[in-house]
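Help wanted!
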Amino acid sequence: MIDVKMVRKKADRMRQLALEAIANAGSGHPGGSLSAADIVATLYFYKMRINPKQPTWPERDRFVLSKGHACPILYAALAEKGYITLQDLKSLRQTDSFLQGHPDMKHTSGIDMSTGSLGQGISAAVGMAYAAKMDKKDYRVYCLLGDGECEEGQVWEAVMSAAQFDLNNLVVIVDYNHLQIDGTNEEIMNITNVSDRFKASRWQVLSVDGHDIEQIGAALDEADRLTNGPVVIIANTIKGKGVSFMENKVDWHGKAPNSDELKQAIAELGGVL
Amino acid sequence: MEANRVAYGKALVEIGRANDNVVVLDADLGKATNSIRFKAEFPERYIDCGIAEQNMIGIAAGLAASGKIPFASTFSVFVSMRAVEQLRNSVCYPELNVKVVGTHAGIECGGDGATHQAIEDLAITRSIPKLSVLVPADHVATGKIVKLMAQHKGPMFMRVGRDANAALYDENEEFVLGGSKQLRAGTDITVMAIGSMVSKAVEAAKILAGEGIEVRVLDMYSIKPIDKEAIIRAAKETKGIVTVEDHNVIGGLGSAVSEVVTSFEPNVVKKIGIQDCFGRSGESKKLFALYGLTVENIVKTVKEIS
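Answered by r_m:
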């Protein structure tokens, strides 16, 4: 049974930690971190079979943040899980830190794949899921895609291949917040009927409110039961979710809050700076 | 005589027998690259990614992150250019144990024409941090280098051509990362060559010996890391260096050698290769003549600096 209250609390705590880290760094991506917060929290605090004491445990479930720029929220989850420390979070993007502006698997405990260049993480997730099949292991691979990221051709190469290889151990979640750097998806490059695109490629498609922990948890559980190939969960989200002045504002894709903005954001998220 | 790509396919089967973690990927060119030989013996460890090279390199990265030793092959033009950013960001940045093999490299690719002739692949791959770059000159070298790639941990790129090459080495020859092979001793001029140009260099050296010019011939099969010591020795001990490659004169062997020479032991480096232009369709032998990748041109160039 999912403990919705606990996961929600973790998600909001992660939001605060991510924003603090971004503010401290003076740069980063708050909008997409906040839209992904509830999804990442549900994966790390409900769904995934992982062990922070054994970050490279071969049987662990994998998580690939294909929209690597949202890493502050992943780093926050890793800190809350104990892979890294709260102190580490404060070093985000600093010259002497291992916490890079985009995930670096080589130097950060708990990161399963280095990502950042859009469209690439999903291919690596396909490779990981394929390896599990070859090794007859039952771990699952979760991959979080951005909606703007779906404009990359490589995403659709990967989608095609996951179906071809019958990877029913692969679950992709699309963080569908409708915004990208230059404007809305619809204005810039419409990924119209993204569900249908996956369906046409023989994926099993689920759809959830990406901020409803119960729905996200239920969809991830449902994905376990859908064994007829790969599964995609379209998570309908709000960019900047949880901070009133960031919600649905394209300008908050990639800029750090100043100290007053951070203070207000933390307060809205139920925290104290 | 056997094409290096054939030797590649055969070597894959051997390393596949020795190590269950070896996985082979191709992008619908398994018959041409010869990786299909691996499929015949290990179908469950062969992944045809279809005509989608970027995804292939990404899948290879995911396999390597899960403990596999993936060899991903296709024409060099596609793997070194279409999928170069995947190679850089998904493979080399995280230093994943992915082996990339580009075949049909250079104008030797022949009839397919400029679109399929990789003359920039060495320049591109050489400039990516953490990536080793190897170019075997014959089938023995290819087999040995494939084994070396399977044993060495980290991202590596091997470039081979399309045609059968003259045999240069016997089965006992060993190849190491960062090594080179001296195929002929000489104290006047050094000719450094790679791939199918090595046998031409040897031939040219024989002709030059008849004219009283003693040429040292080096097979620079390890483009990165490169055998600095051999280059410095050549720059010190001979009057000048001629590099020969089926690649653009910008960025490949000639550049790699020049970088060492200018830093450690200034000397003349003349570069024989594609003179910064695109290739065209034709028989490889005729194309080599057209673009100056010939024994005659090596002889002429050596004389210019002797």
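OP: Thanks! One thing I noticed: The first helix of chain A runs from residue 4 to 25.
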